[in-house]
Write a structure and sequence with these properties.
The complex is a heterotrimer of chains A (about 375), B (about 290) and C (about 290). With about 290 residues, chain B is an all-alpha fold. Helices cover about 75% and strands about 0% of the residues of chain B. Classes of the chains: A alpha+beta (about 375), B mainly alpha (about 290), C mainly alpha (about 290).
């Protein structure tokens, strides 16, 4: 292995126990140099604990953490070249912007001229060249965010950790900051590890995303892999919206499984590589709303398509992301994306509809 | 309509009550302060005209406070005692704040109650109990080793210890309240940026506590300055100002020079109290 | 290693606290109790016994003084609450934003003026040749000067005056934290002014009320200057007895016994007060 291949961060079988509770369970991953890596999971899944172990605020119960190929287990937090943007930013209120950014440099005794130069450079790179003399409370939410990043980046870290830093911002600013963070990451070309429970943040910004649940990594992959080819039922349910049915496999033939749902509906689903389905097994089926087509109930379903008839319960208009809620034959509500054009052909509440989707888009997981 | 009229009458009555209260609050202070400017040998009516003699005149019978040796010496001792009490009690108050906010040890709640107790022990009792203990130790050592320990006899050291014993509760409470508001992640952020533990304390935590420490120090100084009950039993030959004034009042009777001192103290303590309020109010939060 | 550092810093933080409490509070009080149990049987000869306490019980002047001090302190505490509560409520809830800050400052600034100066001010106002008497003479309401000093009413007024700010300040802090919507909801749900006060405001303010009462009671019972200066020689305040035993008669044993009795008595009152109101020392005095 050559030096250039060394991942910026590598965790090997990291575990963390708090008393009886295992917060992080046997987590292993590598992050290649210069990438944007997100850890996505519901609150309480152990992602913050994992991040605090990487930063050095907690010691793992077992396993190893390597930064640039060197184990940091015995390095105290103030000696690790891993910097962190905190959830509430933790900017120092008694210092101005310049002093906040210069803080880390002063701690290691950098001379004044170098500090001046570096602070000036980093402020320019985050496009806030003139705020050095401002007090922290005079900044807007988005500016504070960028200062918190600059305060870390000025120290040239191997890895930058970000702990849900957008959580405190309002919706509109959050959308803008997503793009900005991605751009900043490109610009600094440093490895970012981003922790969040918000899937759209993770999917939009990341090169790779790890889905974490109950202390374990469920799947690591590119955002589109996670979305289109989830490996576990949790990932299928957690990433993106989906309709869910539970049922039993009635037959497996020609790479396809035939499933009878609890309400008696028949569905076909394509077997994925490596999945092991056999007749009689209980399964959960996930289908994303954008793959379900909803048409007025005069055309029948054809060939390999799954089909259900139902009645439109309500239309959820949201521009390009409009959706219908359809009451299925057993009374369940099924979501399907539709195009609302404003013409007479649009679906309306009370219409009888036929829903259909391909067996390719039917994700089936043994329970 | 009737409702609102009776409400208005009620509010008017309420306001008059508030006004009456503040008149009541101010009257004795105004009386004590204003006779300092009366050109008379006695602090009483009638008004004989305005004078600053009771502050600055250097001859008897109208010896001004700034030329009165004994009063000046009292002021000097009070200031020294106040500064020492304030420094000591802010130091211990700060360590107590860290102990009770950050520390984790058995019977913490019990010790916290113990910390509050000195505030609800009458000052007289603190005075006599410390006097008794100090004298016992001093007598014991004198009997056994024939060696006299001066600082355990009534004097400045005992006064400082006596006042420190209850002022520390006040400073501890003020500083603890501030430390509780401290966002612990700021220390982690500083560590993460490469600061050592000592640097974190010096550059982040203590600057955050500074307003509370200043305010606590001022309050400690003021409480020490005005204290009488505890001091009375512990005082030696170096009388602080309140004791000197009390002696003067009891033995010589009141003369307007005491009004001058009162004026000086009212204005001084008022200004210091104002500063401590302003310092705390302007402290940056989050 | 990390945990060693933690333990060391805990010990270093505990040391000043322990030294302070042990050397300046616990040890002196133990010493005082021991001293109070020594009886003088002959010059420089002492015996262990309850003689000093028996003297106290056998001499009605002593225990009358203690009871008088206690009951007058309770009266002063009650008056301070009665007078102070409306003031605190006005500052915290009724005054506009700007006058609120100003009024609160007016309470905070004279907070630390010495008892001595306060009493001195009252003397100048109330004595025979004082401002009040002169003023009444001048208006013709009276024909000869009146002495307002040296009676119980003046002592009570003076004491209330000295301690009332220590009642108002914690009350303002507590009431300030109360959401106005709570009072409005109380009225909205059909409560009269009195029920709202009794059911909502007072229960909410209870920690502040108890805190103020404890501090005020302790300050009053332990005060020395105000009763002496305003009440004169026959003010019969218990602290005066302690001073008398210690300084004038140089009878430290009996002085220590008196000190312990005062401490026990005031502690008992505070303890009863806390029990009756269901509060604790930690959530009242510590918060103000």
């Amino acid at each position: 292995m050559t030096v250039t291949d060394t991942p910026d961060l590598e965790c090997t079988a990291v575990c963390k126990d708090f008393g009886q509770v295992r917060a992080v369970d046997n987590v292993s991953f590598q992050i290649p140099k210069g990438s944007f890596f997100s850890i996505l999971g519901p609150s309480g899944c152990g992602k913050t604990t994992l991040m605090r172990m990487i930063a050095g605020f907690e010691d793992p119960s077992s396993g190893d953490i390597e930064i640039k190929g060197k184990s940091v287990l015995n390095t105290p937090p103030n000696k690790r070249n891993v910097k962190m943007v905190f959830q509430h930013l933790a900017l120092f209120p008694m210092m101005n912007v310049y002093e906040n950014i210069a803080y880390g440099l002063r701690c290691v005794g950098t001379d004044k001229a170098t500090i001046d130069q570096k602070v000036k450079d980093v402020l320019e790179r985050i496009a806030l060249p003139d705020v050095g003399n401002r007090e922290v409370h005079q900044l807007s939410g988005g500016q504070k965010q960028r200062i918190a990043i600059a305060r870390c980046m000025v120290l040239d870290p191997d890895v930058l950790l970000l702990d849900e830093p957008l959580g405190a911002l309002d919706l509109k600013l959050r959308e803008a900051m997503k793009i900005e963070l991605k751009l900043l990451q490109h610009q600094f070309n440093t490895t970012f590890i981003y922790i969040t429970h918000d899937q759209s943040e993770a999917l939009v910004m990341s090169d790779h995303v790890a889905i974490m649940n109950e202390g374990r990594f469920e799947q690591i992959g590119r955002p589109e892999e996670l979305y289109h080819a989830p490996k576990t039922a949790f990932v299928a349910g957690f990433v993106g919206d989906s309709n869910r049915w539970s049922g039993k496999v009635s037959a497996v033939e020609g790479g396809k499984a035939k499933v009878t749902t609890d309400a008696g509906l028949q569905m076909l689903c394509q077997k994925r590589d490596g999945s092991d389905l056999s007749a009689g097994q209980s399964v959960n089926i996930y289908v994303r709303p954008e793959f379900i087509s909803a048409k007025r109930a005069d055309t029948g379903a054809a060939g390999d398509l799954n089909a259900i008839r139902g009645k439109v319960d309500s239309v959820l208009f949201n521009g390009a992301n409009s959706r219908v809620l359809v009451r299925g034959p057993s009374g369940e509500l099924i979501e399907a994306d539709v195009v609302v054009t404003g013409s007479d052909s649009d679906l309306r509440a009370g219409d009888d509809v036929a829903l259909s989707w391909s067996d390719q888009q039917t994700m089936c997981f043994a329970t | 309509m009737a409702q609102s009229r009776s409400n208005k009458a009620f509010l008017l009555g309420y306001r008059l009550y508030i006004l009456a209260f503040f008149v009541f609050l101010a009257a004795p202070l105004v009386a004590a302060g204003s006779f300092a400017f009366n050109d008379s040998l006695f602090p009483s009516l009638p008004w004989q005209g305005f004078t600053l003699d009771w502050f600055f005149n250097d001859t008897e019978p109208k010896l001004g406070m700034f030329h009165d040796r004994r009063l000046l010496r009292g002021l000097y001792y009070s200031a020294i005692i106040g500064v020492m009490v304030s420094a000591l009690s802010v130091f211990v108050g700060t360590t107590n704040a860290f102990l009770f906010v950050r520390g984790n040890f058995p019977a913490k709640n019990f010790f916290y109650i113990i910390m509050i107790l000195p505030l609800v022990i009458p000052g007289v009792i603190l005075g006599i109990s410390i006097l008794v203990m100090a004298s016992n130790i001093a007598n014991g050592i004198e009997d056994r080793f024939n060696y006299e320990i001066d600082f355990l006899r009534p004097g400045i050291v005992l006064v400082v210890l006596g006042q420190f014993s209850f002022v520390t509760t006040i400073t501890s409470l003020v500083i603890t309240a501030r430390l509780k508001k401290f966002d612990y992640t700021m220390e982690e952020a500083a560590l993460n940026l490469g600061a050592s533990r000592i640097q974190v304390l010096r550059t982040v935590t203590l600057p955050f506590l500074r307003p509370a420490m200043i305010a606590a120090g001022i309050v400690a100084f003021l409480v020490s300055f005005e204290n009488f009950n505890t001091t009375l039993f512990l005082v030696g030959s170096e009388s602080p100002l309140t004791i000197t004034m009390f002696d003067r009042m009891a033995k010589v009777g009141s003369t307007p020079v005491l009004n001058a001192v009162s004026f000086f103290l009212i204005v001084g303590s008022g200004l210091l109290a104002l500063i401590s309020v302003v310092v705390q109010r302007n402290a940056p939060s989050d | 290693m990390q945990s060693d550092i933690k333990r060391l810093s805990l010990i270093l933080l505990f040391a000043p606290f322990a030294l302070w409490i042990f050397l300046l509070i616990a040890l002196p009080h133990i010493g005082m109790v021991i001293l109070s149990l020594r009886e003088k049987v002959a010059p420089r000869v002492y015996e262990f016994g309850f003689g000093n306490y028996i003297d106290f019980i056998q001499e009605p002047i002593y225990w009358n003084t203690l009871l008088r001090t206690g009951s007058m302190s309770i009266l002063v505490t009650f008056l301070a609450l009665l007078i102070g509560f409306p003031i605190a409520y006005y500052i915290a809830k009724i005054a506009g934003n700007r006058s609120k800050g100003a009024l609160f400052l007016l309470c905070l600034i004279p907070l630390w003026v010495s008892d001595l100066i306060r009493a001195f001010g009252w003397i100048l106002l109330l004595r025979e040749t004082g401002v009040a008497s002169s003023f009444l003479l001048w208006t013709g309401a009276i024909n000869e000067p009146i002495e307002f000093l040296y009676n119980d009413v003046t002592v009570v007024v003076g004491l209330v005056y000295t301690v009332i700010l220590f009642m108002i300040v914690p009350l303002v802090s507590t009431l300030d934290g109360m959401d106005d919507a709570m009072v409005e909801a109380g009225y909205n749900l059909g409560g009269s002014g009195f029920t709202v006060l009794r059911r909502i405001i007072i229960p909410y303010a209870m920690p502040g009320i108890v805190s103020g009462c404890i501090v005020v009671f302790m300050l009053t019972a332990g005060s020395y200057l105000t009763p002496i200066l305003l009440g004169g020689k026959n003010s019969s305040w218990f602290t005066e007895q302690i001073y008398d035993q210690f300084i004038t008669r140089f009878n430290w044993e009996s002085g220590a016994a008196f000190g312990f009795l005062l401490l026990a008595f005031t502690s008992l009152v505070v303890w009863l007060g806390l029990k009756l109101t269901g509060q604790t020392l930690a959530n009242t005095v510590a918060k103000s």
